[in-house]
Amino acid sequence: MNEEIVVLYSGGTDSTCCAALMAGKFSRLHLLSYNRFGLFGINNIKTNVSRLKDKFGENKFIHKDLNIDKLFKKVSYSRYFYNIRNYGFFVLSTCGLCKLTMHLRTLIYCLDEGVKNVCDGSNKNMKFFPGQMKIVIEEIKRMYSEYGINFMTPVYELNHPENLGWAAKTGLSNINIMNEKEVNFKNSSDSCFTTGQMLKNMGIFDSDNLKGTSLDKKMQARCFQLVLFNIFLYGYFLPAYGESLYFKVCLDFYKDKIKYFKHFIDEYVKKGRESRLGVCLF
């Protein structure tokens, strides 16, 4: 109970539920939010930070807003032509690159602050998003563990409300995926709580399953670049090649990215703010 933990915090229902669950297990939570060019509504995040403080106490949480603009560009464009040659249009998987940037920034924060635990609101129902794919999460865990940090995904097995998300709303969940079974965007188990239901039961939300509603959008930052990723994913890759190849190439791409940036992290450990990562962060 005397340990501290970092939560990658967007202000949405999944990361808020994650923070609420960890509030009962750790003495202090560092809620890290991130901003860069392309994100808007950053101040929305404060809405649920206030709810968490009201529920668990003001001193339980430290909320910080970290700028990752330069780091995101470095993650996205380092060895750009190498990545195009080897992974093609996966350089358009903006959401995964952004999440990897957040993890790299979080890892540096933990090294600076001496925090040994990290968690986020990754969830099985977002299985096509690289940062929420179990096989990629295992690589993220391995990256943290190499620096003595434990990474957890406490709400991974919880459900989402049905017919949620960009693909379902536009009808692209019914696309013909090459050589694959139909993609199931619905709950895998009716017996499993959603994060919204858990937050209502804890007395943090007044109603359950806010996810995807207009109120939910006012609680967290938004990103228009999600459209680019969805066009690549649902409009091109899945119909053309199927999800098995998507998962394989996605894993290879992000393993390669993590391996490449490990050298930068090691350099930061030795040189701090004078390192190449330090220049991007401070």
Name the CATH architecture: 3-Layer(aba) Sandwich
User: Approximately how much helix is present in the residues?
Assistant: 40-55%
Query: Reading side by side through the largest sheet, how are the strands ordered?
Result: 4-2-1-5-6
- Give the CATH topology: Rossmann fold
Average pLDDT for all residues: 88
Rg, nearest Å: 18 Å
Helix/strand structural class: alpha/beta
CATH class: Alpha Beta
The span between the termini is 32 Å
How many strands, what sense, and barrel or not for the largest sheet? Answer: 5 strands, parallel
CATH H-level name... which superfamily? HUPs
Number of domains: 1
Number of strands: 7
Number of helices: 12
Q: Would you identify the regions where 5 or more consecutive residues have pLDDT less than 50?
A: 177-191
The helix-strand sequence is: EHEEHEHHHEHEHHHEHHH
Strand-residue proportion: 5-15%
Outline, from the CA principal axes?
A: globular
